């Protein structure tokens, strides 16, 4: 400062003006030195950090570069320079030191925030992160860091001990609870979800209340993000996963089998006993040869043992087309390459309804992928619907316009309509 004043006086500047000019020039000089020093430190740090990361076999080191840890450390350089030069301004030294300390506290908070992000990035490289994510806990730590940092900044500016400010937090607890209500609820919910292994990133869940049906992409302190199958994003409060119900399909995916539970409806007017001609035709069906032989022998032995009069179909036992049809579907599914052989497999008859007799297929595919599962299911029911007429059965469906037109044409060509004798 004295050197600048003397130089200005040598140029003929008055002493009173020289004091102001020397101060301004010195401030500009300090600022320029600080910026240049930061720029040089940033360039040198980045150069060595990039070289180290490119040569390092440690895959985690790149996260420090991506989160700009090294660049943020260089913010300490101008703070140190400003702190050193603050002694050149005795009148404002106290204020300058407070500002420098405040700046360093803020830089420290930013660096700690970036380090926590690095910790989360490193943790997500492990498979356990899908089971027990820590992002919610990291967000809680960040909240405390920012709160403590804010207290330190305020206490530094006020020149008071942080303990005095901390003692007043009790009075602000109600306000804190109100402001951070969602965060507190989310923290508690996150602990429950994690400890009970209820949710993982990548799980397929359904939550009709929020119109959510898709895969979880992110679990944070306050929200759970779900990418629906139509590629839209649904955001649900974390605490809602505890207070409301949802369906998690992870169990199905891990089991290796996906359930088929669908019925076809048979027109009851088409159900009948099997004639000898029908039985002979059924014997030609590969899946039914063993069943027909065994069942026919069982029925004949029963009727002979109890001396059943078979002149009436009502007496004794006999094969029905619906029973043979069920046996065929059972054998067909047991041989189908897309059906899981170690899980429940049955073809059952449900209670008759106004839409016919339901024949329900209850089985599991050996593929859980959605598109593959739908393909296997469609292939099975395509075949069942197509072969039903071969058993003398009709699939029930409500009359369509085509049925009414066909009936009308039939009536219009009948002898009674044409006035002919019947």
From TrEMBL:
Main location: membrane
Domain Mechanosensitive ion channel MscS C-terminal: 330-394
Basic and acidic residues: bias regions: 402-411
Key words, A-Z: Membrane, Transmembrane, Transmembrane helix
Name the record gives this protein: Miniconductance mechanosensitive channel
Family: Belongs to the MscS (TC 1.A.23) family.
Domain of life of the source: Bacteria
């Amino acid at each position: 400062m004295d050197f600048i004043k003397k130089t200005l006086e040598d140029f003929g500047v008055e002493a009173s003006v020289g004091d102001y000019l020397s101060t301004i020039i010195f401030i500009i000089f300090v600022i320029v030195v600080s910026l240049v020093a930061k720029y040089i430190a940033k360039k040198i740090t980045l150069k060595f950090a990039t070289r180290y990361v490119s040569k390092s076999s440690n895959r985690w080191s790149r996260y420090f570069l991506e989160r700009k840890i090294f660049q943020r450390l260089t913010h300490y350089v101008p703070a140190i320079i400003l702190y050193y030069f603050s002694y050149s301004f005795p009148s404002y030294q106290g204020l300058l030191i407070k500002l420098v300390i405040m700046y360093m506290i803020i830089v420290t908070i930013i660096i700690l925030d970036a380090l926590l992000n690095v910790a989360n990035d490193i943790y997500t490289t492990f498979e356990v992160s899908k089971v027990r994510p820590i992002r919610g806990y990291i967000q809680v730590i960040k909240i405390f860091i920012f709160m403590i940092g804010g207290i330190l900044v305020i206490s530094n500016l006020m020149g008071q001990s942080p303990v005095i400010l901390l003692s007043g937090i009790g009075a602000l607890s109600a306000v804190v609870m109100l402001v951070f209500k969602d965060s507190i609820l989310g923290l508690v919910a996150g602990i429950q979800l994690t400890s009970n292994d209820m949710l993982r990133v990548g799980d397929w869940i359904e939550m009709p209340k929020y119109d959510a049906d898709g895969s979880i992409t992110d679990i944070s302190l306050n929200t759970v993000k779900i990418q629906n199958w139509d590629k839209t994003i649904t955001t649900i409060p974390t605490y809602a996963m505890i207070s409301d119900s949802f369906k998690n399909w992870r169990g199905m995916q891990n089991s290796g089998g996906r359930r088929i539970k669908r019925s076809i409806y048979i027109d009851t007017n088409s159900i009948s006993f099997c004639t000898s001609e029908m039985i002979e035709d059924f014997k030609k069906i590969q899946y039914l040869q063993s069943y027909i032989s065994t069942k026919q022998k069982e029925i004949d032995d029963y009727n002979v043992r109890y001396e059943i009069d078979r002149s009436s179909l009502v007496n004794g036992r006999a094969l029905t087309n619906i029973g043979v049809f069920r046996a065929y579907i059972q054998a067909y599914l047991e041989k189908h390459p897309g059906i899981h052989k170690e899980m429940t497999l049955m073809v059952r008859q449900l209670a008759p309804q106004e839409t016919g007799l339901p024949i329900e297929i209850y089985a599991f595919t050996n593929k859980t992928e959605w598109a593959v599962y739908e393909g296997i299911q469609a292939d099975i029911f395509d075949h069942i619907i197509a072969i039903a007429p071969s058993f003398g059965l009709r699939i029930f469906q409500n009359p369509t316009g085509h049925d009414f037109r066909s009936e009308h044409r039939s009536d219009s060509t009948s002898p009674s309509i044409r006035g002919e004798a019947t």
